[in-house]
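Might you be able to consider the sequence and fold that I enclose below?
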Amino acid sequence: MGRFFAVLAACGLCACAMPAGAEPGAGAGTGEIFYNPMAREGQDSSLDVTTELAGAWSNAGQYAAAPEDLKRPPVVGHPYDWLDQQYAQFHRVEAPAIGGHVLYLEWRGGDADGEISRQRIWAFRQDEAGALTGMDFYTFVDPAPFAGLGDTEGAFAALTPDDLIGYPDGCTLTASAPTRTGLVFEVTAQDCIITARSGREMGIEARIEIGPDRLSYQEAGVSADGSFVFRVPGGPAYAFRRVDD
């Protein structure tokens, strides 16, 4: 875990907030990727979304335009407004034991040479008709051996559920129906309930919006009284744009 997320006491889609050994839910939905792959005969919507995300992304433009008082690091226990700059790479990988449409994501603080802040697996699910239904997300039991290997052929071929930490039932992000501007994956704090390593129970909410050359991302932990345990980022959602890798 990189310096950025290590500062959070409980951090949503990060490993420190996940119940050890939990298995992801199956999820349900009827969404298809936003550019309507079903209009293309034989085209698979899950394959399309991994292709759409693969590559390098940055929120450098968002960060440069943000007010100066927003540009500060998160503080443990205080999910107030903050925003940092992140460089995100998404790699389509072959991981047969996890699923047929799998992305490995590796984020770095600042730019491509920054310290790793996040390593995750996103596995996209589809129904029997081939329509995209949702996404399960995982952290690594030990992420270090996979750092920098997103483009290495076969690096994830032996990956199994024992190498990953998942979420309990109800925590699959459900795919929305597509719109002209994009596709939304979302889970609510009412549906996704976890117990952090501290023993504290909280709901996890997350929202990912994918559009042509843009990606929006935000997550939060919500306590029983509705207050935020954490928010990532603390202010507006990350607004990534595709960049040349």
Observations:
- The chain has one domain: 3-68+84-243.
- The chain is about 10% helix and 35% strand.
